[in-house]
Amino acid sequence: MATTAAPATDTRVKNGDGTGRGGGDGAGVRRRHRLGDRIWPLGFALAAVLVFVLYQWILPQAPAGVSDFFQTWLPMSTINQCVIWATMAVGLNVVVGYAGLLDLGYVAFWAIGGYVAGWLMSGFFGQWQINFFGHPAPGQESGIHLSFWLVLPLAGLFCALWGVIIGAPTLRLKSDYLALVTLGFGEIIPEVFKNGENINGFNLSNGVKGITPLDPISTGPFAYLGVPEELGPFDETWKFVIYVLIATFAVFVSLRIREGRLGRAWLAIREDELAASMMGVPLMRTKLAAYAVGAFIGGIGGVAYASAVGGVAAEDFAFSSSIILLAMVVLGGMGNVWGVMLGALVLQWINSNGLAKAGEAINQAVGKDLNFPSYNFLVFGAILILMMLFRREGLLPETRTRQVLREPDRGGAEPADAELEGERR
């Protein structure tokens, strides 16, 4: 009896893009994946080095026209602000992009971190005199003066504690209800600082006057390498190095946690909370961890911001700041760290310097005198509308988010299938 040979089967495990993991195509995909994982960190490091070299050594020796161009359109103070906002956007991305918890009160952690810096790096508490590797400003020898490098983790841990406290009441809330509760906390915390000049006779925040000046940043042993011993208000270029290191730390923590068990649990909750709980994901602990990690990054970002502006005031932490941070996360690419960084850098440059300078150039060209910075929210609104219409997944979207948002509408696909089935009948 004749037998027929069974057809050869391809035993390679298929990847998401249809290529085999065991063959040459799979190896190529893995190589491209590793290359993609390295391009953005290397690009970020290279850009930071180029910016530092340009502003520290090249521009001071450059022709006046070249130096004036960079100082007009991209001053170092603006670059520092962009890096600090990018750090806080990465922290918000942990809560919103990873865990899918809509947080409209993230500015609260930013405020708490800033005020921790004000309490521990100034002469505000003049009734005490504590100095631990601090560098008091002239005439501010009394008070609490801790090293900037010690205040960073203290502020981060303090904000993480408040992240758990604020997150605990929201564990059973979802969607709009969660957003409203976080909005409430985001409004309460700045108001506490704004009205905290006299709490039963205790001055917590100095009210609307704020806390200023803050101690300069000490560089410690790096002073022997030519770095100034203290980084004051005019050492913008060296401060840029510190803010880049803080942003690098935030990105590193965000990426490493995402690849681990906790990060996968966050993604599971984001995709389907019920399914995640049925698979054994502890919802309470996982959500609180997201709030704590995001708050920690927001706290160190608040310390960096306070050191950049030389003080801290309640008016800096308005609700609009939370909305701008959320816009950075959404427009950059929710869930993608590098997309969030890109969105934050672009939007903060527009908000702090780009829109004003572009307005001046347009006014000179057309002979008008329009106040373009007063239309910044109009510009933000237009950007949001255009992005949601034409690229709602963001500038650099997460792969899964891009696939989900680009799926064809099932409501439109099913009638077509039914029609084809009717034709076959």
Calculate Rg over CA atoms: 25 Å
Q: Taking all residues together, what is the mean pLDDT?
A: 85
Distance between the termini: 40 Å
Order of helices and strands: HHHHEEEHHEEHHHHHHHHH
Across the major sheet, the strand order is 1-3-2
Total number of strands = 5
Number of helices: 15
The structure class reads: mainly alpha
Instruction: Name the beta content range.
Output: under 5%
Low-confidence stretches: 1-24, 411-425
Instruction: Give the overall shape, derived from the CA principal axes.
Output: globular
Proportion of helical residues: 55-70%
Largest sheet: 3 strands, mixed
Summarize the structure.
The chain is mainly alpha-helical and 425 residues long.
Protein architecture, described:
It is a single chain. By secondary structure, the protein is mainly α. The protein has helices at 24-58, 64-73, 76-98, 107-120, 148-167, 175-194, 236-259, 261-271, 273-278, 283-309, 319-333, 337-366, 376-390, 399-405, 410-424, and strands at 121-122, 129-132, 143-146, 217-218, 230-231. The radius of gyration is 25 Å and the shape is globular. 64% of the residues lie in helices and 3% in strands. The protein is built from 15 helices and five strands. The chain has a three-stranded mixed beta sheet with strand order 1-3-2. Strands 4-5 form a two-stranded antiparallel sheet. The chain has a domain at 76-219 and 231-318. The two termini are 40 Å apart. 36% of the residues are buried.
